[in-house]
Amino acid sequence: MLGPVILAASRSDKMRRFISAAPGTKQVVDRFIAGETVDQVVPIVEDAADKGLEVTLDVVGEDITTPAQAEAARDAYLELVERLKVLDLGPRAEMSVKLSMFGQALENGHELALANVRPVVEAAAAIGTTVTLDAEDHTTLDSMFAIHEELRKDFPQTGCVIQSYLFRTEDDARRLAEAGSRVRIVKGAYKEPASVAYQDKAEIDKAYVRITRILMEGEGYPMIGSHDPRLIAIAQELGRRAGRKLDEYEFQMLYGIRSDEHVRLAAEGHRMRVYTAYGTDWYGYFMRRLAEKPANLLFFGRSILTKG
């Protein structure tokens, strides 16, 4: 099982330095990271819109150690909102945020993260778009859900993410599948202990289907985050059985993975959103992409050997 090993490496400063210096790293990182600056990512948003796609934008970076860094993360998102406003791209682009970037792990982190993320959510609403709160490791989720609930009082379109590998998630899905909610379901990409999460891929997939059914049969707006053709087909069938129209749920996939499928689903009339990450602090995000799929790791290894 390479996944847990890679996830452990994502927390290692030594591995961070090694991977960052490897000759083939940039080629692979560029596959998953849309750029380092807002200027580099804007053309990608425009291109996606031309293809009938929508995006959710993530400014990468999670290892926040000071309140000043958390405020800088807030400001990076506010800069993004301003650019989307100027280019009238708000309706095509929402944002995804990790509350760890906004100071959640610091002293008084819950209050700090809420204070930092609120102006981003407010600015997004002002240009006709919204924010989704990404799920991180299980120890952060009660805080994330509480912040989500608080933000929805003023900004009911604020979304959140749930992860099928956690035992708790079916109960979370039932609670969240209410009118007006926006919930993204993913498998999960953090190293979690067997006491809180399924470890077997087949069990994670079965839970994913059960949770997708809960969301489809609920009153909210499901967002299906998967590249798995079988799970995508099952989600389509569950949506049909629940009587949902194609614009009453959406699919989400990562930038750089199965791009042809993005276009195919959009052409069929589905709402298709591309999760598009950018920024300079790409290491943690990049390592989770490697952990999710062995083919990504093989691609990275070949690149290093070719460039070395």
UniProtKB/TrEMBL annotation:
<feature type="domain" description="Proline dehydrogenase">
    <location>
        <begin position="45"/>
        <end position="298"/>
    </location>
</feature>
<keyword id="KW-0560">Oxidoreductase</keyword>
<keyword id="KW-0274">FAD</keyword>
<dbReference type="InterPro" id="IPR002872">
    <property type="entry name" value="Proline_DH_dom"/>
</dbReference>
<keyword id="KW-0547">Nucleotide-binding</keyword>
<keyword id="KW-0642">Proline metabolism</keyword>
<keyword id="KW-0285">Flavoprotein</keyword>
<protein>
    <recommendedName>
        <fullName>proline dehydrogenase</fullName>
        <ecNumber>1.5.5.2</ecNumber>
    </recommendedName>
</protein>
<dbReference type="InterPro" id="IPR029041">
    <property type="entry name" value="FAD-linked_oxidoreductase-like"/>
</dbReference>
<comment type="pathway">
    <text>Amino-acid degradation; L-proline degradation into L-glutamate; L-glutamate from L-proline: step 1/2.</text>
</comment>
<dbReference type="InterPro" id="IPR008219">
    <property type="entry name" value="PRODH_bac_arc"/>
</dbReference>
<dbReference type="Pfam" id="PF01619">
    <property type="entry name" value="Pro_dh"/>
</dbReference>
<dbReference type="InterPro" id="IPR015659">
    <property type="entry name" value="Proline_oxidase"/>
</dbReference>
<dbReference type="GO" id="GO:0004657">
    <property type="term" value="F:proline dehydrogenase activity"/>
</dbReference>
